[in-house]
Amino acid sequence: MRPLKRTTVTRGLALAAASAFAALGTVLVSSAPAEAACNGQANGYTITRYHGSTAVAQERQVTGTCDGNGYYSGQLRDMVQGDGFTAKVRFKEGSFNEVVFLTGSITWQGYTYTEKTPDSATSYASMQVYTDPDRRPDLYSVNTGF
User: Suppose 126 and one of 28, 40, 45, 140 were both cysteines; which one would form an S-S bond, judging by CB atoms 3.0 to 4.6 Å apart?
Assistant: First the structure.
C-alpha cells in the first residue's frame, strides 16, 4: 500500500470537518430554543409568535423582572392591525389558567403577573403568547425565575 500524500489526507480531514460542522449546524438551526420571558433569574428575552411567516404578537420581560421574587412585569404588542384579533398572554399555574392581559396596540403595553403559588422554591408559571384562538400554541412556554 502506497503512503497517502499530505494533501490527500488534509483534504480528507477538511471534508470530514466540514461535513460534521454542516450536520451540527442543521441540528442547531432546526431545534428552536424554548421560549420563555424569564428563563431563570437574570435571563429574559423576547417571545415572537408567527402565523405562517408573519409576526403577529410579541412579549418581552421588563428589564429587572427576572429576579426570583414571584412578580413578573412584561410588555405585549399586537404586530398586525385590523385582522380582528388581539395579542394575548395567558398564564397557567396550578388551577389558575387564564388570560392576564390582552392588547390590540402595536406599541408595547405593560402588564404584571403575580405568582399564584409563592411557596414554591422558584417562581414558575407556564405562559402562552398568541392572537388567533384557533392557532393558539398547544404547548405553553415555561416562565421561571421571575
Answer: 140
Asked if 128 and 141 touch (Cβ cutoff 8 Å), the reply is: yes
Predicted model pTM: 0.68
User: Is 58 found in the same domain as 21?
Assistant: no
Residues 83 and 140 occupy one common structural domain: yes
Please report, for the domain that includes residue 114, its CATH number.
2.60.40
- The answer to whether 115 and 71 have CB atoms below 8 angstroms apart is yes
Structural domain that includes position 87: 47-144
Task: Evaluate whether residue 42 is within a structural domain.
Answer: no
How many domains, the chain? 2
Range in 17-21, 58-62, 130-134 the model is least confident about: 17-21
Residue 39: partners with Cβ closer than 8 Å, 6 or more residues away: 45, 66, 142, 144, 145
Amino acid at 133: P
pLDDT tens digits, 15-44: 444 444 444 343 333 333 334 577 777 777
Domain presence at residue 5:
yes
Coarse DSSP helix, strand, coil percentages of the chain, rounded to the nearest 5 percent:
20, 40, 40
CB 88 within 8 A of CB 49: no
